[in-house]
Write a structure and sequence with these properties.
Blueprint lengths: L3 E6 L3 H12 L1 H8 L3 E7 L3 H7 L5 E3 L2 H6 L5 E4 L6 H11 L3 E4 L2 H18 L3 E2 L10 H8 L5 E7 L2 H13 L3 H10 L8 H4 L2 H15 L9 E2 L7 H9 L2 E12 L2 E12 L11 E8 L3 E8 L3 H17 L31 E11 L4 H11 L4 E6 L8 E8 L2 E2 H12 L9 E5 L6
Parallel strand pairs: 1-2, 1-4, 2-3, 4-5, 5-6, 8-10, 10-17
Antiparallel strand pairs: 7-9, 7-11, 9-10, 11-12, 13-15, 13-16, 13-17, 14-15
Length: 438
């Protein structure tokens, strides 16, 4: 049977890993796909590097559009990244009738609706397993393995850099700045780590997970995003004392009022499996109505883990290459005409529990004032920890865990608490999720 010819755009870390995995596992891949998958062309501005990696039968060019327009290329693999030229190449490939495999989560989160509509119009597939959680097959699990389920919620550690930083802060007592420097020294964080530490990368991935889980369009602009750069080491320590760990979670939930889309630091019980995911590893917890809670764990980045997902997509596209488009798995799991405009719930309307840390003067009546304000807002306290003042200090840390309440209510209560003369500075607020089976 005629081989499927692949054109690779970008020969960086993931591109190099893809080339290596395809070459090393060629026999296994062919047996699974039913036909050979051949890397016919590579496009990269670094021609010397590309030629060094490529085989003698692989065409190397600095012009990505040459790959996109080549009549012999069946599948274009986009590993350039970004949301400008990558979008142009993908849309042109689709218009040329070529299937696309991409690891570009930012592009899909922002322009996915346009890209999938174009792919549907031209009868081609866009596969993107590598766009979320690296080597973990979470896209396939949601689109196919859990298709009998009504997904109720997802909570995921989907950014390895931030998870490494939080692990370092907990394990060594390092400050955020110290842990970030360590992550950069080890190559886990970029020189400009903004996308990772401020939750933007996780928000891109969560946008994709929510669309597949709930049958809604991509809506990155509606994701509430809060990063970890303002977390203090004492909050990591206090959470541990109370039996919790802090993780940067991407959370999406189906509620009667709408769908939650939020990324933020979150306290979760230390006994939960996902709370024990350390370092740069990723994990995604999915709750389906039929299957219950399932967890997917593994490497969320790296050359070969991500290449594993890219090559799996190549095999899937190869298997379905000649299938009637009506019998292919829809890009977002639901048929294109069955997507819904379920509203995205504003963060102010989200209901969850909270960790509060207050710096208070050690005087009688302080706790009574605080609890009265919380009670007036309909907020009940689940647990409390009051630290002893250091010698010579007049202020103490008070830590409270609340029962579930609506975000706007806790925000209003915090504003009132901060106006008390006995409270020093701002109240630290971190959301808390039990992540149980309910």
């Amino acid at each position: 049977m005629k081989p499927v010819n692949v054109g690779l755009l970008g020969i960086g870390t993931v591109g190099g890993g893809t080339f290596t995995v395809l070459r090393r596992n060629q026999e296994e891949i062919t047996r699974r796909a039913g036909r050979a998958i051949v890397l016919k062309m590579i496009a990269d501005k670094d021609l010397k590097k590309a030629r060094k990696l490529a085989g003698k039968n692989t065409i190397v060019t600095a012009d990505a559009m040459e790959v996109v327009n080549h009549p012999d290329i069946d599948i274009v693999v986009e590993l350039i990244g970004g949301t400008t030229v990558a979008k142009q190449f993908i849309l042109k490939a689709i218009k040329n009738g070529k299937h696309v495999v991409t690891a570009n989560k930012a592009l899909l989160a922002i322009h996915g609706n346009e890209i999938f509509a174009a792919a549907h119009k031209h009868g081609v597939m866009v596969a993107f397993e590598a766009a979320v959680a690296g080597g973990i097959p979470i896209i396939k699990a949601l689109r196919e393995g859990l298709t009998a389920n009504r997904v109720e919620w997802i909570a995921g550690i989907i950014n390895g850099t931030s998870n490494y930083i939080l692990s370092e802060m907990r394990n060594t007592g390092a400050s955020f700045a110290e842990a970030l420097r360590q992550a950069q020294a080890l190559g886990y964080a970029e020189a400009d780590p903004t996308f990772d530490i401020e939750g933007i990368d996780a928000a891109h991935k969560l946008t994709i997970l929510a669309a597949i889980s709930f049958g809604i369009p991509m809506q990155f602009d509606k994701v509430y995003t809060e990063g970890i750069s303002k977390l203090a080491r004492e909050d990591i320590r206090y959470a541990e004392e109370l039996g919790y760990r802090i993780k940067l979670l991407g959370i999406t939930k189906r509620t009667p009022k709408g769908i939650e889309l939020r990324v933020h630091p979150t306290l979760i019980p230390a006994r939960r499996l996902i709370a024990n995911v350390e370092g740069v590893m990723n994990a995604v917890l999915v709750k389906g109505d039929a299957v219950g809670a399932t967890m997917y764990y593994g490497a969320g980045a790296g050359a070969e883990p991500t290449a594993s997902a890219v090559v799996a997509d190549l095999v899937d596209v190869t298997r379905m290459h000649t299938a009637d488009r009506k019998h292919r798995v829809p890009h977002l799991a639901f048929q294109p005409d069955a997507l819904t405009n379920t509203p995205i719930l504003p963060m102010s309307e989200v209901q969850t529990s909270y960790y509060l840390r207050l710096r208070a003067f050690d005087k009688p009546g302080v706790l009574a004032d605080i609890t009265r304000i919380l009670a007036d807002s309909g907020i009940s306290i689940d647990a409390m920890l009051q630290k002893e003042p250091s010698e010579g200090e007049e202020q103490v840390d008070i830590i409270m865990l609340t029962h579930e309440t609506v975000e706007k209510h806790i925000n209003a209560a915090i504003r009132k608490i901060e106006k008390l003369s006995t409270i020093s500075g701002k109240v630290v607020r971190i959301r808390l999720e039990e992540l149980n089976r309910n």
